[in-house]
Amino acid sequence: MYTPSEKDQLRRIEHHEADVVVVGAGILGCAVAVALGNQDRSVILLERSLKEPDRIVGELLQPGGVQALEKLGLRDCLEEIDAIKVFGYDVIYYGEEVAIPYPEDGRGGEASDEMRGTKRKRPEGRSFHHGRFIQRLRQKAMAHPNVTVIEATATEMVTSGYTGQVLGVEANVQGKPDSFFGHLTIIADGYASKFRKEYRTDTPVAKSKFWGLELIDAPLPMPNHGHVILGDGAPVLLYQIGTHETRALVDIPENTTSASVANGGVKGHIRNVVIPNLPRAVRPCFEAAIEKDRLRSMPNSFLPPKTNITPGLAILGDALNMRHPLTGGGMTVAFNDVVLLSDLLDPAVVPSLASTGLVLKQLKRLHWQRKSLSSVINILAQALYSLFAANDTQLKALQQGCFEYFKLGGNCVDGPVGLLAGIIRNPFVLIYHFFSVAVYAIWIYVASGGILAAPFRATIGSSMVFYKACAVLFPYIFSELRV
Q1: What are the structural domain ranges in the chain?
Q2: DSSP 3-state assignment of 157?
Q3: Engineered SS bond to 166: which of 60, 83, 313, 457, CB 3.0-4.6 Å?
Q4: pTM confidence score
Q5: 421, 177, 206: which is closest to 324 by C-alpha?
Q6: CA-to-CA dists, residue 182 to 22, 81, 168, 211, 343, angstroms
Q7: What's the mean pLDDT in 4-19?
């Protein structure tokens, strides 16, 4: 006699049928397969290639993401991959730096352990080689008795001609066509999703690219911290991903003159614009990496979320929602989405995923419940990038104001970095700090103009800076309010 689990496994292997078919064994795909498998759901996880991926993003997990991993029982996936502890950020503005550590109250407003008379260490993030982390997640999925992982390339949806319900996917397995069926199909095939365009008309918007290098034994100004370097041009990120390796990400907006072919292309931009703004101790490693390492790029895409409304289908992860990776929030959003989804689809609430109407109802709830975190991460990433890649007078004023605001310390650091870390999950806190930065920036802008310029700056100039702040923030707020 077979146990229920063995029967489901036989059904997955021989008949390619399960409760859930997941397309994409990346960050979200692996996590959701394990989470639903833990609920005794039968899961088929499809992945085009099970080789270790090699990417230049998805390498920093904020404390809010670490907490979500713990809830999913996947915390040990951060072990044995040479992951580096991250305690916060070091922001360097034209050579001047300010530390913004993760806040001591790591539970986002709950009573801290200090209040109870005990000492709690600050929350920690982790940075690592993306591929190593993915392989650990895949190992967890492969070892799960309720999950079958198959190397296959999904090609198209299997859809009911009568109801429009998604019944599964067609795929190529070792060059041969095959089909996989489930009550719920989850598309988690990443930023370049081949299925997204079938179910929504808008497309990701990318106005810049990150160009990545790997520095060897780089002496970072503040070890165990992410570094954001602001100067001439768009921001540069530095963070350690291994004992000897440091990731450097250079943001280059479209049509950047200094990166044109006539000026030496991307390498010319890095040599002429980026390196002079770097801390002196890092420059030799950067120059060596340019000569030895291959330059790779990733588009910095923005895609607001939309409600899943197709019966039998859920589009999640970067296929659903993307933001600029400046704040390193993508994986934190993904893992928290899995926590929410597994709660909403708990067998006590949804006994059978064949109850398509009930599943759709829960997916609509997911769209709104996730916003306490995802909207904060989405808006913050886009707004901060606008300030950090400032290309006009008003944005430059806001950029300087943001840096000076961090220098005030206290809540002026704990609030913003708590939002960035996925610890504080309140959009109103974001709005408060953003406009506090704007007001502080206006004060600095007026005060630094001298007596002759003060009247203009106090009236027209300050109004233009405030208007620019609104123009930066409100479009992203409105994008989060759409269904």
Answers
A1: 4-54+129-200+303-370, 205-301, 373-481
A2: strand
A3: 313
A4: 0.94
A5: 206
A6: 9, 33, 5, 39, 20
A7: 86
